[in-house]
Design brief:
By secondary structure, the protein is α+β, with helices and mostly antiparallel strands. Helix content is 35%, strand content 21%.
Length: 150
């Protein structure tokens, strides 16, 4: 599967910037269209990468109660009073996009990973740092909930 774009960049060729359900699907009763779109996105990856994406998604869900899922910028996105985190799969890494503050707050712990201002790369040949990801997600939840109270 082709690598998805960085959320700061453009969407995948031909993909609309915000997709809430796969094309041609009007949604099924009881199934959130955003969740269905993320299911379809993850299903397109090879088994090893798909397993890591499913693990990351489950970690985000567990640590961001009440967050909604959708495809935004061509990749899976969790929202809670605005964008919370994005993620995607690539040939050699899983891209995790918690935003610049989500990276800077955990800079020392992320030192062993390639990162940019708002993203970090987790190699596909290593286990995901589950505890660290959980703490980053909870940090972002706290930020977004604080915005809501203003």
């Amino acid at each position: 599967m082709e690598a998805a774009p960085d959320p700061a960049g453009a969407s995948a060729p031909g993909a609309p910037p915000d997709v809430t359900a796969p094309e041609g699907k009007g949604g099924s009763p009881g199934i959130d269209p955003g969740t269905a779109a993320v299911d379809a996105f993850i299903a397109g990856y090879p088994p090893k990468t798909r397993g890591l994406l499913e693990e990351l998604r489950a970690l985000i869900r567990e640590n961001a109660p009440g967050a909604a899922e959708k495809i935004s910028y061509g990749i899976p996105t969790f929202t809670l009073n605005g964008n919370l985190v994005h993620f995607s799969g690539y040939e050699r890494h899983i891209g995790f996009y918690p935003g610049s503050e989500g990276i800077s707050a955990f800079e020392a712990e992320l030192a062993g990973y390639k990162r940019a201002k708002g993203s970090v790369r987790f190699p596909v040949d290593r286990p995901l740092p589950r505890d660290l990801i959980a703490r980053i997600v909870r940090f972002r939840v706290g930020q977004n909930r604080a915005k809501q109270k203003r």
